[in-house]
Amino acid sequence: MQPQERLSPFWAITIVFLSNFCILVIELVAGRIMAPIVGVSLYTWTSIIGVVLAGISLGNYLGGKIADRYASRNTLALSFALSALGSVSVLGILEWIGPLQRLELPLIASILLIFAAVFLIPATILGVISPIVVKLTLVDLNQTGDVVGKLYAAGALGSIAGTFATGFFLISTFGTRAIVWGVAGSLLLIGAMIALSGRGWLRYSLPAIFGAFLALSGLAQQQGWLNSDCLRETNYFCIKVRLDAEDENIRILTLDRLVHSYVDASDPTHLRYGYEQIYAEVLHTLFPAQEPVAAFFIGGGGYTFPRYIEVVLPGSRLEVVEIDPGVTEVAYAHLGLPADTTIDSYNEDARSYLIERATTGQYDLIVGDAFNDFSVPYHLTTLEFNQLVRAQLDEEGIYMVNIIDGRRGDFLRAYVHTLQQTFDHVYVATTVGDVGAISRQTYVVVATVRSLDQMMGRPPLDQHFLPAAELAAYLEAGPIILLTDDYVPVDNLLAPVFTDPEG
Question: What is the pLDDT of residue 358?
Fold first, then answer.
């Protein structure tokens, strides 16, 4: 190897730092950019990490082979240019994964295939870089440990910086598509700078290609090609709002791939979803008319039910904990939540809020509405969380939650059984049909210390809530799991809902 081909330790460390920074940016963006397509769950994040690590491993292997035969600055520059092309390919492949979604595969296989199709190639090409850098940096075999150790440390620091920068700043500031494009541009710029220090045709062609990329970036920005399909991209959701085709007063809120709320900006008492209508029936049956209540809402979304209570029970003390500040801002800006609302909003995790701020026995009603499609905050389903909720309710209070499950009902059984360890009475209502009758069913679960048997047995609640004997028989018809902080396999329990049309 010619001396002019070698890299100084400073540039080698810088290059490895930047390449690993880009790898982790791509990995974090993968989770957000795919959420509207495949949702967010333990399965999706496991697939992301696994696919990216597989790509890096394959790239390291291939990079070692390439380094032994063709190590040069031009090879390194070309690797960065190809990495830029691989990053851009993410945006193109996203438009063509529809057929993969329609394949009748098990859930895990389907998610793995989709992530591999989009992200395996970029991760593999980025993995090629480090072995080439090592080859170009080593001069004395007696210093192998020192050189490789420094490069590994630089790579780890780049990964840490990429993780923090993406999670805390980049996604919420620029959006996922712009970040992917920016990563491609950064990789191409690094490749152009390396090529300028080398020899041959790449010395002039890569800087020229980077200039063309800048021009294309300006056109892309002007034409809106990199604009997200989301109204807002936050660290939690791709937020969309659209008008209902049948009623222009209805605004539809979508979080990632789930339609979360229908909001009538002109009539806060309009409730579209069946579970919200059951909420209202429970409210009016259990609480005296026109008397205010103290209610706590786990999840804000479109603020549909908090607004309903604000209007029908004036003077109520209403607190909403919505983890995503972007959702709350959209509710104010696009969903008709008035600036002078009496609803108090807090943007943090509900469990943390209850631990740090709430006082014992202060609520008449706690409503859980934080379960989003396949993404279930498992720490809000456990025995320990239920005990925390119980402590915040007065003796006459109720805890009301909506959940989704399928025909098998594994999650429903586990969730109800877990609630029964904390609350003396648990009631279950179906929004459509009989329990377990359809492959994707929404349930309303009510948990109380006092008995509501007589009220549940009278209209209108008797039309929805299962008789105690029927609920007991349903729970006994399958395996029952106690959900605790140490054991909470929610994703596994819900998997049949998304893999088997028969649930």
Answer: 67
